Prior knowledge:
By secondary structure, this protein is mainly α. The protein folds into two domains: 41-105 and 132-197 and 246-394, no CATH class; 198-233, no CATH class. The chain contains 13 helices and three strands, in the order ααααβββααααααααα. The protein has helices at residues 17-29, 32-53, 61-80, 90-102, 129-146, 155-172, 178-194, 199-227, 235-245, 256-267, 294-327, 331-355, 373-391, and strands at residues 110-113, 116-122, 125-127. Strand 2 and strand 3 (125-127) form a beta hairpin.
Amino acid sequence: MPLAPKIETPTHFNPTSTTGSRIRRFFEVVNVPLIIVLILLTAYGLLIVHSATLNTSLFSFNRQVMGVGIGVVLLILLWRLDYRRMGDLLLPLLILDFILILSPLLPFIGVEENGANRWVNLFGQQIQPSELAKLVTIIAMASLVGRYRGKIDSGREYLKCLGTLLALFVAIMLQPDLGTGLVFFAVGIAILFVGGAHWKWLLITLVALSAAAALVLYIDPILDDMMGRDVLLKEYQKNRLLVFMDDTIDPMGIGYNLKQAKIAIGSGGLMGKGLYNATQSTLGFLPEAPTDFIFCVVAEELGFVGCMGLLALFAGLILSSLWVAFRANNPFGNLLVIGCVGMWIFQILENIGMTCGLMPITGIPLPFVSFGSSAMVTNFMAVGIILSVWTHREKQKGK
């Protein structure tokens, strides 16, 4: 009679090993710190926007909530997508980028406000395509620079990457939208630096751009006199530069916004006046409080402590994203995250800096905080891409 096979019990059997492996697998797939920071930052932003829009009919809080909802859906879709599939789509990405940038200039759907064509009207809703173009630019530049595997050896290769970035900048300036153009450059320089471009080339580029900006400022009034109209810079852009150089100029005119912003920030003190108790925005003294000057609302209502709390959340967003970049297994994934981080850092510094008079005033929103569903959706999509890089990093080990 044959003997039954002997079943051996593992010497070190641990009944909790399955549970432990599931927990480890969960943290390998889900970047918990990044998601926690995202939830807290979004909640913070919604609370401040609700306060800033409570006594005005010009901004709809429900629209902001809708932007968050759409952003969450797109975040999940991009998270589930293997980001590497986008790496070989450079040409389609560039075509999409130019379509997004130039769409506000099209008749029938383009919307002009304050002398700029930055919005399109689709199905009764105004959308700012340049916000999504920021993310497409990140993906396109990461795809282009990532092909050099961390080392751009020749000046020809560097000029190819820089030329692509300049073409996108020229296109966005047709709207014109200098703020978004500066974001493009911040993203591009960050990706080029991490992607292996020599620091001397980057330094020469920055010097050349500074010289070009100085030349534009010099010849602009000459061209305006010759043509009888604004040629290179719009009147509001010149006024913003004048106020940046001298914040005491015309406090009831072109310097009014900055003056009121400083009053709002200073009046908050250490602990603030309390949520929903702001006077500068509620009484209409602070223009564009829910959008460009939302940080002033934070300072006035929650004070220095509230501002530091917001900056701590931004630091958590940046650091948790950089950790994903550090753990990425290929150049494309690394550069994708660096591009998103570069976009956030520049927008945070510019938006907060302009409210304090440390940077020129632009229309750059504060990520996850400023009112604007287009910007909110774009920021959520950026997080979705970062989570995709985190989730799919292990699949590249066996390649």
